[in-house]
Structure prediction request, 254 residues.
Amino acid sequence: MRSAENGKFRLTRRDFVRGAATTAGGLALAPLFLSGRFPASGAFPQTLRIGIIGSGRIGGAVGTQWARAGHEILFSSRHPEALAELVEGAGPSTRAGLPAEAAAFGEIVLVAVPYAALPQVGQDHAPAMRGKIVIDCGNPYPDRDGPMAAEALAMGTGVASAQYLADVRLVRAFNAINYRSVESEAHRAGEKVGIPLAGDDDEAIRAVSQLVTDAGFDPVVVGPLSRAREFDQGSAVYVTDMTAAQLREELGLA
Prediction:
């Protein structure tokens, strides 16, 4: 929904359509956001189910902030038993499971894996994530991820990730901040750290913008996925902890 205060959007599970819609190409997509249903009052519950595929440093840090904001979090790993300490620290609204469980559980899914693993995530979990809002926060490093990382950087990571994560409502976000800053700078007094994000779906951008706010940061919408390259690793704004105003100035945003 759209809150009456500050013109911000608050999106919850009842904003999602459980049924399937069909694209022009005949592909069933579910669940989908119901366009235009943002009530002006606080009628909806303030909780979303978020599945996290890859619960290392950044996935664990961001997921913990969302749990503290009241969302239900399923952290995942191929070895979920290793996430016991993370779950205990993040609180009672969290649990651990396998990546397939996170993909199915989440109304929104955060993918926080080494970039070389992204194609496999797309292959393994495409049916469960189809039509969902998916946040990609991985960064391609050629020395770690190989030639595919160099290709992604040359193409622009947002565009490259969309090829690996087909048929989802992709938003690029939380890639340009260090996990230590997520832990130390969330909800700080004064001007908050800005989080740049990009995507081709307006409602997905609204939802992720609200989640950025819930995590304790200021969302800065840069534009479509083609502009996500402007905050790729190696860019002028990457892991700088700039405020939203500083990001807008550096990126030439109105």
Q: What stands out?
A: The first helix runs from residue 57 to 68. The CA atoms of residues 52 and 177 lie 17 Å apart. The chain has one domain: 14-33+44-251. The mean pLDDT is 86.
